[in-house]
Design goal:
- The chain has 728 residues and is an alpha+beta fold.
- The protein has five domains: 92 residues, no CATH class; 130 residues, PAS domain (Beta-Lactamase, 2-Layer Sandwich); 70 residues, Helix Hairpins (Orthogonal Bundle), CATH 1.10.287; 152 residues, 2-Layer Sandwich (Heat Shock Protein 90), CATH 3.30.565.10; 194 residues, 2-Layer Sandwich (Nucleotidyltransferase, domain 5).
- It is elongated, with a radius of gyration of 40 Å.
- A five-stranded antiparallel sheet has the order 2-1-5-4-3, sandwiched between helices. The chain has a five-stranded mixed sheet with strand order 7-9-10-14-13. Strands 17-16-15-18-19 form a five-stranded mixed sheet, sandwiched between helices.
- 50% of the residues lie in helices and 17% in strands.
- A hairpin with a 5-residue loop joins β3 and β4.
Length: 728
């Protein structure tokens, strides 16, 4: 029941009760008397009531009014005032900077308010003293943190620190610059790097997970041959090539023999697109130079042979000498042009990493089973064989070939084998069993698979199997086993350098930083509804519109949003985007939101702006004030944009009505006033989003006082609010 309705009932109830009591008293008195006494009483009352009935009725009304006034005073004094005092006390208990309690009401309430204010002042003093002691004790930690931040800012590499699930915990400026360059052609130009966001919006999960598996195997084996870092190359949605080095982050071992699991990983990222393109241009230029030089050499060889003839006429001899001089001049010009182009200085190489051969075979075996569903037998493999490979792309190539084999043959019974090939090479064989007659037809059926683009699970790549093998300086061909004639694909791969083992043992250990916990925000699994509100990531947003009727043609003219991660408002990660509504802006609304038609002219339309906001919100929880209004606008744009905002929703209006059910107003200004929050930039989308974020952060501990801790509990409680039935 609403507070004003409860007040009306409480006011009228005493008067009605008194009237009922008087009537009931008369009825009971008459019932207790005998017939003669009842007749005498009736005879005495009848003239009184007949002549003074209006007076009696008026007395009853006065009595009822006095009782109502008394009930109203009692309700305000003993119901409303204590409830509001309790609300203010809860706010003051959570935020020492909140306004002091108003000293009003009866003497007991005034004394209670004064006592609470005194305790709050003492608590503020204690917190200030505790803050001073903590600040003194944390000076060394702050110094180390600043040193780490300065070190990261000066690194030439883009660096990002992630939890195991890919959520970003720390990144430097170069990483932000790199992500902005890459996101210009992806996700509508939205920021893809930010605290609490997923690194997989920029770097695909596949190679990251593969690198983590490689690192975990090395840690479990206790091997330091190639360190505990893994390298890979991946392609972004915009077509850029990224060279990535992944290093694990582990907690300190309890004892020397312990191998605790990973808590996260560090990525060093380089965009090598330009280098690879330059290398391709260099290779093309060298190939052109080789072909043209071969032609010039052939011309000179023919001219020299003619000059050896003893009976050659002088004019013919001069002609052939001129051919030689021209070809030499042409060759010199080509070499000068090549040297001037600086292409010879570009010596980029595809990054390869050392990997134990048995690990490569095991990983390829798992990938083939996942891709084809066919069992694979791991055959002969040397345990001490180390390869120098790009393991992710090589395994994808092997799995692609295995998939083609599985399509050609039913129950192929595939196998893998890795053996030395002599010198600095090794043979990795993918074989299978076929009937005798089928073996003769295999080369014509499968030979072209080496040159086809790799396509696994519908994910096409411009790179072929042969391209991958050539990156390793190797070869791939289709052959038959000499003993039984069974077919196999043979991959010629490079071995790791023999002196790498001794070099690896002398590498200095990577310094560890465990003086402050970067990874607390990254722990925890489970459904979102089971997660505490204090640990979730939120996108708080607001819109400004041309009017209040989205179904009637009103449009969004501004979107503002800010992120909350681990209880902190990230003011540096926000959206403040004007939108061209492609219709007029009513004059009546301009003084409220301050947006004139000239300001939105030339701005992105809603179809162009929403993908940016959709990518910004990602997999976070959406928060707004009276969010049903904003969501109605977004819902009506689903058909045009193809974007669904199906994230969980929370509304500060509903949450406030749960925390403060006795308050008459739950406007953003009223809530902010109760919680001691200053509102700045009201009636702009970003200003309202920031104000809502401030309010929401302060509501979380107040909800916890009522036992509402998780997202699921907050959503259920919001559904029970009297305002939850509002629709637009």
């Amino acid at each position: 029941m609403k507070p004003d309705r409860r007040l009306l009932v409480a006011t009228l109830a005493p008067g009605l009760a008194l009237a009922v009591w008087l009537v009931l008293g008369v009825v009971l008195l008459r019932a207790a008397l005998g017939p003669a006494e009842r007749a005498a009483v009736d005879a005495a009352i009848r003239p009184l009531v007949g002549s003074h009935g209006g007076l009696v009725f008026g007395w009853w009304l006065v009595a009822a009014g006095l009782a109502a006034w008394a009930g109203h005073r009692l309700h305000r004094t003993h119901v409303v005032a204590p409830a509001r005092l309790a609300n203010s006390a809860r706010v003051l208990a959570e935020d020492a900077g909140a306004p002091e309690l108003p000293v009003q009401g009866g003497s007991s309430l005034r004394g209670l308010a004064a006592a609470i204010n005194s305790l709050a002042a003492e608590r503020r003093g204690l917190k200030a003293e505790m803050a001073r002691l903590v600040e003194e004790a944390s000076c060394s930690v702050a110094e180390q943190r600043d040193q780490l931040a300065a070190l990261m800012s000066e690194l030439d590499h883009a660096v990002v620190v992630c939890a195991l699930d890919g959520r970003i915990l720390l990144y430097n400026g170069r990483m932000l610059d790199l992500s902005r360059q890459l996101s210009r052609h992806a996700a509508g130009g939205a920021e893809v790097i930010g605290l609490g966001r997923s690194i997989h919006a920029l770097i695909d999960r596949g190679p990251v997970h593969h690198a983590l598996e490689t690192v975990e195997r090395r840690i479990a084996r206790g091997s330091d041959r190639a360190g505990h870092a893994a390298k890979f190359v991946t392609t972004t949605a915009a077509g850029h090539l990224l060279q990535v080095s992944l290093a694990p982050v582990r907690p300190p071992a309890v004892t020397a023999g312990d191998h605790p699991g990973l808590t996260g990983f560090v990525l060093l990222v380089d965009d090598i697109t330009a280098n690879i393109e330059a290398r391709s241009r260099r290779d093309s230029e060298l190939l052109r130079l080789t072909e043209s030089t071969r032609a010039s050499a052939a011309s000179m060889q023919a001219a020299l042979e003619m000059l050896e003839l003893p009976d050659l006429a002088p004019e013919e001899r001069e002609r052939f000498l001129r051919v030689i001089r021209d070809e030499v001049t042409t060759m010199g010009s080509r070499l000068d042009d090549l040297a001037a182009s600086s292409l010879l200085e570009v010596m980029t190489r595809w990054p390869l990493q050392e990997m134990l051969g048995s690990d490569l075979v095991a990983a390829a075996q798992r990938r083939i089973v996942a891709a084809t569903g066919e069992p694979v037998i791991a055959g002969e493999t040397r345990d001490d064989l180390w390869l120098n490979v790009d393991s992710f792309s090589l395994i994808e190539a092997i799995a692609f070939v295995a998939g083609r084999v599985a399509k050609v043959h039913r129950d192929p019974r595939m196998w893998l084998r890795l053996v030395p090939a002599g010198g600095t090479r090794a043979h990795l064989d993918l074989g299978w069993h076929v009937a005798e007659g089928a073996a003769a037809r295999l080369p014509a059926t499968l030979a072209r698979v080496q040159s086809e683009p790799i396509d696994l699970a519908g994910t096409a790549s411009p790179v072929s199997v042969r391209d991958v093998v050539e990156r390793h300086g190797g070869e791939v061909w289709l052959g038959r086993d000499r003993s039984d004639g069974q077919p196999f694909f043979r991959f010629l791969l490079p071995l790791a350098p023999a002196d790498a083992a001794s070099a690896a043992t002398n590498w200095p250990s990577r310094p560890e930083f465990y003086d402050f916990d970067l990874f607390a925000a990254g722990r925890g699994d489970g459904e979102l509804d089971d997660q505490p509100l204090s640990k979730l990531s939120f996108t708080v947003f607001d819109t400004e519109t041309t009017g209040l009727d989205p179904a009637g043609g009103d449009e969004i003219i501004q979107i503002g949003a800010v992120r909350i991660v681990n209880g902190r408002i990230l003011r540096g990660e926000c959206i403040d985007q004007l939108v061209d509504p492609q219709r007029s802006i009513p004059e009546a609304g301009i003084p409220i939101h301050g947006i004139h038609p000239a300001m939105v002219r030339g701005q992105p339309t809603i179809v162009e702006a929403l993908p940016t906001f959709h990518a910004f919100a990602g997999d976070s929880v959406l928060v707004g004030h009276n969010i049903a209004f904003d969501m109605r606008f977004l819902k009506l744009k689903e058909a045009r944009t193809g974007l669904r905002f199906d994230q969980p929703l929370l509304d500060t209006l509903l949450l406030s009505s749960i925390v403060h059910p006795d308050e008459p107003s739950h406007s953003l200004e009223a809530i902010a006033g109760r919680l001691g929050t200053d509102l700045v930039g009201r009636h702009t989308a970003l200003g309202d989003a920031l104000a809502t974020a401030e309010v929401f952060v302060r509501l979380i501990p107040l909800l916890a006082q009522q036992g509402i801790v998780t997202l699921g509990e907050a959503r259920v409680a919001s559904g029970s609010s009297q305002f939850a039935r509002l629709e637009y």
